[in-house]
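Work Package 3 (structural annotation) set out to generate three-dimensional models for the target panel prioritized at the project kickoff. During this period the team completed the workflow that converts sequence records into discrete structure tokens, so that structures can be stored uniformly alongside our sequence database. As a representative example, we reproduce one entry of 380 residues exactly as it appears in the project archive.
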Amino acid sequence: MVHICLKVILNAIYRVRDNIKVVTLTPSRMQAFNTIVQTSGLKAKSGLNLDIPHRWNSTYDMLNEALKYKVALNRYAAEQYHEAPSDYEWANVEALHGFLQKFSEATKVFSADRHPTSHLFLKMLLAIRDVLLDETWNTNELLHEFANRMYIKFQKYWTNPNMVLLIAVVLDPCMKADFIKFYFHTIGENVDLKMRELKWYLKKYYLEYENIVRIHTLPVFNISNEQATSESAESGTSSLGLVCGKRRVEFAFVQFVSQNSDARSERSELDVYLEDPRILVRPDENFNVIAWWKKNSDAYPILSLMARDFLAIPVSTVSSESAFSAAGRILGEHRTSLSPETLEALNCSINWLIGFDYEEEGEPFSGQRMFGSDDEEDDE
């Protein structure tokens, strides 16, 4: 969505990027830039953020820093006879920066890897929608065009979220199914139809997890008295046998109650959880949903297993992709200045020089054999 609007002011972004490349190209230029920075009353920098064009959040970070050093960048460009962004281009950059700030915050929430994110998905989706429909963008023709283009993409991909992510939202005790109703009501969908579909999937998954729990506990209930006696004798200590016996009694009691209870129409864990009131938290409070399920695992043993699995699903692949991203280490920070052909040639050269395993006549590869020894050079 963001790349759609970045194309509208591509020239302004290119001009800012080009000026930052000029400043950061050599240490001497960076030193000259810092001299201007200090005379302007700003904080000196060891370097400036240079974006990676296909990662819009890095473009936002670059523009965010460029706006802080706007005066210094313009003055440096004037002293070095380099073309700086015009006042109109700076105005467009400033407008874009303010517009993208909310999307940058949402990206940081989605790409976090230290806490679960799947249950936050729907809330951030509504926040993005609210930003796109904000009427304040109508006062600026450029921002109005941004919002319209992005909202078309939003409607295309995000009006019907994945059911797994909806279940993850339900498993947040602060939102439950009430937030799902609120979401579909807000976007104008058929709430009753969507909620029936959601409850069908919730029940389906709940029964699957209930079967898993039953399969793992049934062998304990079927242990005969002889087996229990032999296991107790083989345990080595009477205390361990007592613990095992106590556990078997507890499981047997649970089975007895479930088999002989007359109240077959009692509510399931899922029904109890959905009908219980939501946990009320302040908007600025950092609620730990994993800790809540761990604390309430005795009350909801089956649902806690569901929550463990569903809340572990990451919303974004950013964190996993960045862990395996080697472009910065292999090609450096200024790789965006190079053409695709040059990048490919550099990557191949590194593999040939470092990872090439060459053997000739049974002897290992060496730099002297490839380029010629000193003796050979003398003979020539």
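The chain has three domains: 2-159, 191-314, 320-379.
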